[in-house]
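[step 3/7] fold_predict: job queued, chain A
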Amino acid sequence: MKQQQFGFTLVELVVVIVILGILAATALPRFVSLTNEARTASVNGMAGGLRSAVGLVQARFFAVGTGTSPVSMVDGTTVAVNTTTGIPTGTAAGIGNALQSIDGFATPTYASATAVIFKPTNGGNDTTCVALYNGTTGAVTVNTSTC
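[step 4/7] structure written:
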């Protein structure tokens, strides 16, 4: 009488392990670059948030009446602005208050009112993975060369 086979043979198990190893070796490099791509997307998202904040504050500035600073937003937040253009200043009381959240980003560097630096918390360099805000012109530039 023939007995039925239970389980897998050693050869079958080795073949499965080799196939899984090959799949892992080809998939791993794709996942490694996702961190850099995510950081780049995060910086670009912050730049979009900065541009939106500038637009909203300017709209409120012109709606309420020009020439006054700070501007009181609808939620009660006050934002320091240039009294001629309504652009949020490059300070914590200006663009810092205009943003609702900077989650995932380090505390901005307000070393210069014309170059406020927003960089991701989990990596990046001060000059090569940042969103820069110019408090004089309201311009936002992005540098993601080594995110």
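[step 5/7] annotate
Residues 10-143 form one domain.
The first strand starts at residue 71 and ends at 72.
exit 0
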